[in-house]
Design a protein that fits this description.
CATH class: Alpha Beta
CATH topology: Alpha-Beta Plaits
Number of helices: 4
Number of strands: 4
Distance between the termini: 27 Å
Largest sheet: 4 strands, antiparallel
Shape: flat
Strand order of the largest sheet: 2-3-1-4
């Protein structure tokens, strides 16, 4: 999920300020942990389900934006790749039949996503790695068009010493 609003390098951000922001967030987390600011009186559980969007030959289908528009449901969000979709269920108390209810709710969301994908002659695949993906599927042309993903790519590639030019 995460915060969608970021400053990108064209807006004045740079890798130093990105790292500074990241360290500030980590220090805040450390203070919260040390200060006992997390719930301790109950245990909660939530669900995040990653989905791969594939065409009829099980190749990546970069249609997440179209699906999100059609679904119109805040339980769904983007992922880095245009052929990825994510469904999120809110945390709930970890008690009694919570796992059964999470599974039932998640099944509804996956079936809704699959129905939306079928309208585009595609389907949803629940797997960790899409074995049919090729190097050409993993370029910037399939990076979800949101500033957070472009800035994340710039930061990671900058740290590794390689910047990948945008593919058109």
């Amino acid at each position: 999920m995460g915060v969608q609003e970021v400053l990108n390098s064209e807006q004045g951000s740079d890798s130093t300020s990105f790292r500074h922001s990241l360290l500030t967030d980590l220090m805040a987390l450390q203070q919260m942990l040390e200060g006992g600011l997390f719930e301790a009186d109950m245990t909660r559980i939530g669900v995040e389900q990653e989905m791969l969007l594939v065409d009829r030959t099980y190749r990546p289908a970069p249609i997440s934006s179209e699906l999100l528009s059609g679904l119109g449901d805040s339980a769904f969000t983007t992922e880095m790749g245009k052929f990825n979709l994510e469904a999120n269920l809110p945390p709930r108390k970890f008690e009694r039949d919570c796992l059964r209810s999470l599974e039932a709710e998640l099944n509804v969301l996956v079936h809704r996503a699959a129905a939306a994908a079928r309208a585009h002659s595609c389907d949803v695949l629940l797997t960790g790695i899409l074995l049919t993906a090729r190097a050409s599927d993993l370029g910037l042309n399939n990076l979800t068009d949101k500033p957070r993903y472009h800035e994340l790519n710039r930061a990671v590639m900058g740290v590794s010493g390689r910047l990948v030019p945008a593919l058109h």
